[in-house]
């Protein structure tokens, strides 16, 4: 892996969402998934941005190299006692279960393998009050799953949230004890 890229991080929350921010996320996604944009599921990304950014608990970190957006991570706190991942794992005893759902972590091709993804991930989860973080990884990308495991996540099951979506590995990480 190349040395970690030096990027500027900008943080956004639900109240900071503008049409320009949404367009930046869509633009980065289009570059990150340029070879897969013929997939109808990937073409709906703008809908997912609208859905997640409308959540009052929305949090987003965008990375910039100068004025150029290089990647982002976003998600939101899950509704207590309604976390969708519970069907895959039940904590022992009175283990805390408040959850931050990491929806997207995306890095444009030019900045991949530079440590940018990890910077965005860590910045997004820094200071979170939830006990756990959860995310989904396409099961046809085992190297991505391995990467998340190296960051402290563990697979607890599989899930296909939409009829036209890939099958995903459900991964959890403990944030608080």
UniProtKB/TrEMBL annotation:
Residue ranges of domain N-acetyltransferase in the record: 12-176
Signal peptide segment: none
UniProt-listed InterPro entries: Acyl_CoA_acyltransferase (IPR016181), GNAT_dom (IPR000182)
PROSITE patterns associated with the record: GNAT
EC main group: transferase
EC number: 2.3.-.-
Transmembrane segments: none
The keyword Transferase belongs to this UniProt entry's keyword annotation: yes
SUPFAM superfamilies membership: Acyl-CoA N-acyltransferases (Nat)
Keyword Ubl conjugation included in the entry's annotation: no
Keyword terms, alphabetized: Acyltransferase, Transferase
Organism superkingdom: Bacteria
One example GO MF annotation: acyltransferase activity
Coiled-coil features, chain-numbered ranges: none
Name of the featured protein: GNAT family N-acetyltransferase
Organism the protein comes from: Streptacidiphilus cavernicola
